[in-house]
Amino acid sequence: MILNTKLTKAYTMYETVLVPTDGSETATSAVDHAIDAAQRHDATVHLLYVVDSSVANAAPGLAMSEIKEKLEPEGERALAELESKVEEADLETVTEMRKGTPDTEILNYIDNADADLVVMGSTGKSIRERERVGSVTDSLVRKAGVPVMSVPGN
Fold first, then answer.
1. Stated pTM of the model
2. What is the CA radius of gyration of the chain?
3. Which position has the higher pLDDT, 2 or 41?
4. Which range marks the domain in which residue 125 is found?
């Protein structure tokens, strides 16, 4: 019997579940879906926050260092909150904060961590922000080489 290992892996098992977060409630609610998938497959949950460098363009009166000073603590808070939820579910967790363009950094992380599934909120930003900087979730659904679960906001 010959098995297509690529199809078998994608069809039956997740080893690494990635949850990118922007700190919003929608992003936080996505972690419940990631926990469910990780428990079913005994997977590790990776939590990622990207300090968005495009914010500097949207706030020209502030220096990038000032923006990072404000966004990094928010990222640390968001990661700690999600990490606590994942650890309560008795799952292995990896957290990371990166700086750059969110969709690019998330795609790079998918490749570097060999993620099998991405679970993320679909409406973390306001409509106006999405129109200005584009939807990260939409970009990942189109570009990621792995399944992306888009969890709608409440």
1. 0.82
2. 16
3. 41
4. 13-151
Residue 123 DSSP code: -
Q: What is the pLDDT of residues 40-90, one digit of tens each?
A: 999 999 999 999 877 655 555 556 666 667 788 999 999 999 999 999 999
Q: Side-chain half-sphere of 27: how many Cα atoms within 13 Å?
A: 22
Of 86, 100, 96, nearest in space to 44 by CA: 86
Tokens linked to 138 = 């939409």
Q: CATH number, domain at 114?
A: 3.40.50.620
pLDDT on residue 60: 59
Q: Residue 102: helix, strand or coil by DSSP?
A: helix
List helix spans (H) across 13-63: 25-41, 55-58
In a domain, 3, yes or no: no
Q: What is the C-alpha separation between 38 and 128, in angstroms, rounded?
A: 33
